[in-house]
Write a structure and sequence with these properties.
mainly alpha, 7 helices
Length: about 190
């Protein structure tokens, strides 16, 4: 039988993984674009209108997929759906780091939105299942990752721009890719339905 300390440690691991999953899906895939935008605009030589469309395309990917995320989660299970979302997000990050053009970028910004939809709904469902008596606290912890992630991005992008003025935005997407892959494998190893 598990003792109370073992159960508390397992809960902390689940909360930390939940925070990291939300960090990748919400902070990096959805919210960081606004911080990266000025450097990405310059690197791809695009207008404000086209840059705005990239953000809209990400939201559109999220909007049209969120309806299916709950269905897929109930059919496949939350863990598999989250893994699918993380996989799509990391593919998006990698391809944004090497994008040669605006049109190529639109495909992978859309993929970020789709991946986020497949992560967020199942993650919240799993958290409620794991912590039925503490769901408010746990969901609050996981949602705090948005602020934590944006704070990290707010320091990271200017730092990268000082080091790599022409490619800082590409480096940021690569760093998100590396973090995303790490979280993907942690989810495989540590999360259960």
């Amino acid at each position: 039988m598990f003792n109370q300390n073992t159960l508390n440690e397992a809960k902390m691991v689940y909360i930390c993984i939940g925070v990291l999953i939300a960090l990748v899906a919400i902070s990096f895939a959805r919210l960081s674009y606004g911080v990266i935008l000025p450097f990405m605009m310059e690197g791809l030589s695009i207008s404000y209108k086209l840059a705005g469309m990239l953000g809209t395309i990400t939201s559109f990917g999220y909007l049209i997929t969120i309806i299916f995320a709950g269905y897929l989660s109930s059919k496949w299970g939350g863990k598999r759906t989250i893994l699918l979302g993380l996989l799509l997000i990391t593919i998006g990050f990698f391809n944004l780091s090497i994008t040669p053009s605006y049109w190529y970028s639109t495909i992978f910004m859309f993929l970020l939105g789709v991946g986020t939809a497949f992560v967020f709904t199942p993650l919240i469902t799993l958290l409620i299942g794991w912590f039925p008596d503490q769901r408010g606290l746990v969901i609050g912890c996981v949602n705090s990752s948005a602020g934590i992630g944006l704070l990290f991005v707010g320091f990271l992008i200017p730092f990268l721009h000082d080091l790599y003025p022409d490619t800082s935005w590409r480096m940021a997407w690569k760093i998100f890719f590396i973090i995303g892959v790490s979280v993907f494998f942690m989810t495989i190893l540590l999360i259960k339905n």
